Amino acid sequence: MKPNILPAIRSMKSLEKLTQTDYKTCVILDTHIGHLKSMMQFIHSKHLHPFIHIDLIKGMSHDEYACEYIIQSYKPKGIVSTKSKVIKKAKALGVITIFRVFIIDSHALERSISLIQRIEPDFVEVLPGIANKVIERIYNETGVKVIAGGLISTEQEVNSAIESGATYVTTSEERLW
Questions:
Q1: Which CATH fold topology does 5-176 show?
Q2: What is the spatial distance between Cα 71 and Cα 76, in angstroms, rounded to a whole number?
Q3: At the top level of its lineage, which domain of life is listed (predicted)?
Q4: Nearest residue to 15 via CA among 4, 3, 41, 1
């Protein structure tokens, strides 16, 4: 078990694989609202602590009301979202927040830093996770812990992200768990 990895779960097969590791925390991606209840029952029965990426739940809205419903109904460890209103609602409801940002150019970087400073999430997930200089700058300018995610597929990329200041790395690459 690598202490800085947050396994990203995209299927029940990946979730079952996770239960064969020592990891207790994960991020749920790409699920359908109809599967969420059984998935969360399984997760809780295995004493796992999931973050739910609310923007990637198919079949429901991705707003602050959906966030409130998910938190009250499924009691996740935290919420992941690209939407500042969702992060604010999750913070108000007392769960850990991960604000996900996509850094595609310098304008996106400046806008993201401003948003992070305004909404003060617990963590910010930077995509792509291989953008090491961006990870370092966001951490230095906001003081918010950074999670590197997206396009991470080797141990070297995990180590580089951590060396650049990332606290965690999310990856669906099961061999890195």
A1: TIM Barrel (3.20.20)
A2: 6
A3: Bacteria
A4: 41
Residue with tokens 């239960």: 19
- Across-strand partners of 50? 26
Q: Give 32's DSSP letter.
A: E
Q: Is the pTM higher than 0.90? A: yes
Residue by residue, pLDDT tens for the chain (177 residues) are 778 999 999 999 999 999 999 999 999 999 999 999 999 999 999 999 999 999 999 999 999 999 999 999 999 999 999 999 999 999 999 999 999 999 999 999 999 999 999 999 999 999 999 999 999 999 999 999 999 999 999 999 999 999 999 999 999 999 999
* Lookup: tokens for 155: 């141990």
